[in-house]
Amino acid sequence: MAHKHKRKRNKGSGNSFAKTVLDVFMQNPFKGYNFRQLSHALGISDKASKLLVKEILDELSASRAIVEVNRGKFKLNPSSIKAGVSGNIITGRVDMKQTGKAYIITDDLEDDVFIAANNTYHALNGDIVKVRLFPKRKERKIEGRIIEIVERKRKQFVGVIEHSGKYAFLIPDDQSTPIDIYIPASNLKGAKNGEKAIARITDWPEHSKNPFGEVINVLGKPGENDVEMQSILADVGFPVGFPKHVEADADNIETEISEAEIASRRDYRNVFTCTVDPEDAKDFDDALSLQKLKNGNWEVGIHIADVSYYVKPDSAIDKEAFDRATSVYLVDRVIPMLPERLSNNVCSLRPNENKLCYAAIFELDENAGVQNEWYGRTVINSDRRYNYEEVQAVIEGGTDKYQKELLLLHDLASKLRKVRFEKGAIAFTSQEVKFRLDEKGKPIEAYIKEQKDSNRLIEDFMLLANRKVAEKIGRKRGKQEPKTFVYRIHDVPNPDKLQTFAEFVGKLGYKLQTGNRKSISSSLNKLFEQIKGKGEENMIESIAVRTMAKAEYSIQNIGHYGLAFQWYTHFTSPIRRYPDLMVHRLLDHYLKGGKSANPTEFEEKCKHSSDMERKAMEAERASVKYKQAEYLLDKVGQEFNGLISGVSKWGIFVELDGNKCEGMISLRDFDDDFYYLDEENYKVVGAQQGKEYQLGDPIRIKVKRIDLSKKQMDFTLV
Description:
Elements: H1 11-27, H2 35-41, H3 47-62, E1 66-70, E2 73-76, H4 78-81, E3 89-96, E4 102-105, E5 113-115, E6 128-133, E7 144-151, E8 157-163, E9 167-172, E10 181-184, E11 196-203, E12 212-220, H5 225-235, H6 244-251, H7 259-263, E13 266-267, E14 272-277, E15 286-292, E16 298-305, H8 307-310, H9 316-324, E17 328-329, E18 334-335, H10 340-346, E19 354-364, E20 370-381, E21 384-387, H11 388-395, H12 403-422, E22 432-437, E23 443-449, H13 453-474, E24 487-489, H14 495-507, H15 517-531, H16 537-547, E25 552-554, H17 578-591, H18 599-633, E26 639-647, E27 651-656, E28 662-666, E29 675-678, E30 683-686, E31 692-694, E32 698-707, E33 712-717
Parallel strand pairs: 13-20, 14-21, 28-33
Antiparallel strand pairs: 1-2, 3-4, 3-6, 4-5, 6-7, 8-9, 8-11, 9-10, 11-12, 14-15, 15-16, 16-19, 17-18, 19-20, 22-23, 24-25, 26-27, 26-32, 27-28, 29-30, 30-31, 32-33
């Protein structure tokens, strides 16, 4: 009988194992572990040992040797290490401020470490550094001194050349780089005074305040559209063009599809298939097919461009795509991950052309429940290329040749969405700022583009494919551990950050429950409904996003909190995201019975992809901010309506209606009273007359000054 074989724990072996577990915490005194991470660190994979790890964690927690810092996550009790903090060295990333002081963001500590400007040791923003911590003083933040630069993150700097004749400096655009780079005249590469250029640091002598550098590319005059967009790309380290040998390889790719290749795939050329993308898109990653089955169910195919057929591992194109890791979408251009011949032509699922795909095919019942699934290679011939507006018109009652098919897809997507929110997905909405540009790239109109049902239709089928592909590989079957795979993960929010956010919205008259996972998500969704259209909507949503953990790529699957999915990956956009290409290759390899891939190699690739995604987002935001400032450049002196989007001791921030341009009214410009910040209640108050300006209040402003180089907009009160 099973109970006779129940394992007895020997007290001695339990104690020695507890010491082994505690040693992991002692060796990493500032790092948190949940039981999965701890099992991984100990090299444990069998079920019995994992259960033992859980028991030991409970025992160590009960004895206060470790403390729970997040749900299910433990760290060494600070009292165990307080005595020896002064000798401790931690590793982290530099967050440099304009003033030269810095904060170190580290996994080793709950809080950031403060570094005074005179203790930064030639470190720059984003660098990975080692820090020696100072002895902890009561009620003071943790401080330290940078003692080693482990990795210099930024390889190039964009800025304006100041040239006095014998020598020159590059004044960086990025305000988080508080030093100028000294450029000897011989290293200017023809750059003239006042021009924008890209430079790299060649040397930084021990006792020199400024690093030495050389110009590697002259961009041109500040203010010109091309110069500014190239500056933004170079500032985050994205190349502007492709190397010649990569372009040559792309030009040599065979585009003719052989009959043998078609015969080896499932053929969907005679099944209704369409693509739906933004109006200005050229890289069509995904197509949907729909057909009714004999049993009355619907078969929906999510057909994704088969990039892995054309781009082979370790080829020149593949290496370049990996380095970039993502396409970058600036206001006026796309910097593609793949050469344009591939992204806009060979791989793009253009209408009325035979195209090769990797597909996830689902049999759905009338409630959109998945009854069957199949993954593999297909060939399609898209019947129609729609933009979102065209599909939206059909959803809202318009007529179309494929009206019946589109409305069926809309109905199934709506049912998938309903189930997702019932299971605890969070309804983050994003308002996108768009611009109409003239032929020189100057913005002549700025407007907000909102997500509609046509966007959500595509989104829900992409989410279905991403979720089911991840589950196919990631779900544990029997005793066998899942094979190495690339997941898109999203951790639970930090409880302290969540509590702070709840207090913040509480002062604005809203309630947020911070109990269990389900109550948090339903409470957040209710909050988003309540703030819709109100002055504080944008600020509350952006702070809510910052309260959440950041989504990233990893081989360690912890699920996706925001979507409420246990398994999730990115499978649907291999033209513009490298992780999707990795997923296609791994899925294909495993479907053919291949052995598990190297976890170390893929975790490094995931980390690189997450880093490049963050840089691409920085570039995209910078291009929007620049165009907003440029849009207001010829409107100095004009009046606009707006909403107070933020308050600080320097002034109040105002977001303009209809275009989300955000500027600041300096408190020095208020001439009717002396105003001070009431931080607790998110408002500024007049000291004598008591007049208040609170977050979310409507307000009328006049554009005072625009600084294009800093992307700054200054307003005055009307």
